[in-house]
Write a structure and sequence with these properties.
With about 550 residues, this protein is α+β, with helices and mostly antiparallel strands. The protein contains 14 helices and 11 strands. It has 4 domains: about 1-205, no CATH class; about 220-305, PAS domain (Beta-Lactamase, 2-Layer Sandwich), CATH 3.30.450; about 310-385, Helix Hairpins (Orthogonal Bundle), CATH 1.10.287; about 390-535, Histidine kinase-like ATPase, C-terminal domain (Heat Shock Protein 90, 2-Layer Sandwich), CATH 3.30.565. The chain has a 5-stranded mixed sheet with strand order 6-8-9-11-10. It has a 4-stranded antiparallel sheet with strand order 2-1-4-3. Strands 5-7 form a two-stranded antiparallel sheet. β3 and β4 (about 300-305) form a beta hairpin. It is rod-shaped, with a radius of gyration of 45 Å. Residues about 1-15 have low confidence and may be disordered.
Amino acid sequence: MTNTHADSGYSAPESSSNDINYPLLKIYTYYRVGLSLLLLLMFFSRLAPNILGDQNPELFLATSATYALVNVFTLAILWRRRFTPTNEQIFVILFIDIVALVLLMHASGGLISGLGFLLLVTAATGGICLNTQASTALAALSSLLVLTQALYMMQTSTSDERSLFAAGTLGIILFACSLLFNYLSGKLRASAAEATAQAEHAAYLQRLAQLIVERMQTGIVVTDPSGSVDLINRSATQLLNWPQFGQSLQLSDIAELEDQLNQWQQHPQTTIPNLKPSTTNAEVRLRFADLATDKDHPAKTLIFVEDARSLNREAQSIKLASLGRLTASIAHEIRNPLGAISHAGQLLAESPNLDRADRRLTEIIDTNAQRVNQIIENVLQLSRRRPTKPEQINLSQWLQSFINDFQENSPDSVKIDLDLLKSNVHTRIDISHLSQVLTNLVDNGLRYSQQATGQAHVTLKLGIDTITELPFLLVIDDGDGIPEDGQSHIFEPFYTTEATGSGLGLYLSRELCEANHAAISYCRDSDKKSCFRIDFAHPDRMF
């Protein structure tokens, strides 16, 4: 970015000079052609017989005809070059004009013909198109030629000293005209160069702002009152999985987003819940703001789109840090009395004098002691979780290996089916985290299937989502599933539907998934069976 900006600033004065010279040279070239043809026409039509060619008609005719041909030829060349000659070529063109005008003036009786004043146009043009040295040299040559012509007329005709004084005066005017126009054109070039530099800097800042907006992790959507999307960056497109319907995007493409905008416009002070677009499994947080750019036009709306999962991960990391400090301080205090209670219950159960009711009470003591101990182990495991070490894996092959290991290490007869909707599915994830999550989900699925059908059976279904083009895995069991009123709480810590559960298994699974930029959710599959879905990250994503 910096190099591009520096180069453009360096070339600004030259481009500004070309912008000034181009229209002037174009006009002056047409002026030369028109002037030469007009003088030639006036000479032939005898409109000014006592002025044009009065002293030497042959010289006037030859000069005006040659001058006209040269001007037409020059026009053709400059037209092909888009009126961008070099400074040397401009000097030669202007010098030819001076020589031709002096000869025409001489053929018409000198300064009394008035043709000498046409030299002022040439001097002014030189002052604008050439630098100070070249334009001054051109003015000096013009003055010398005019003085030489006046001296020659004095020697060969009846002209007196007054013609010499007039020639000197014209020379001074030529110098003044050249210097004045050179100064003014310099000021104009400096102003144009400054304006060009400012315009290029503003364009650079605009491109920089566009790049910043485009690469922001926070999504940005700008919409007008009619619902048309004026601006949307890459993050918003990815977070919302915006359907691509050509160049014209409408807010109605995502109905949930349009509904929340309408809700905010009606009740600006209300808290907007997180959005879960139907086109994706992501969860986003929305913030709205008015963009009042013009009092005469309705305000546009700026929508900030943030990844709720990323925000939740940050909040969870703070929560886990606090939880780690808390558990480290109380684990010892809980485990010592818990161990004493468990040991006392075991000793009490060994007593031969216990009746059936008392023995049942010792079993309750032992069961709940083990449950509390498991809760402490899970919390400690959660607070001591190591950083992720993601690597790219072939999920198809890894799942087959996982199933073989799980069945070999399972004490009971279990059945795990693998349904590959697509082969060679890759993702990037920490293998140990994936193994821990999948072990927890398969254990739960086998247990619930056993309770409902008497057969511990789970189906793993692997495929690629047709919308997001990301890999997903379904863990399907034959159980009764989770009631609708409890589905929104199953990933909360310490929430469980069983008396023997700790309520941390699914919570830990979600944390591990989010640490690997994956998402876990509960749903029903196409056969209405209970199902947990894991949406994995792209295999090339680095984190």
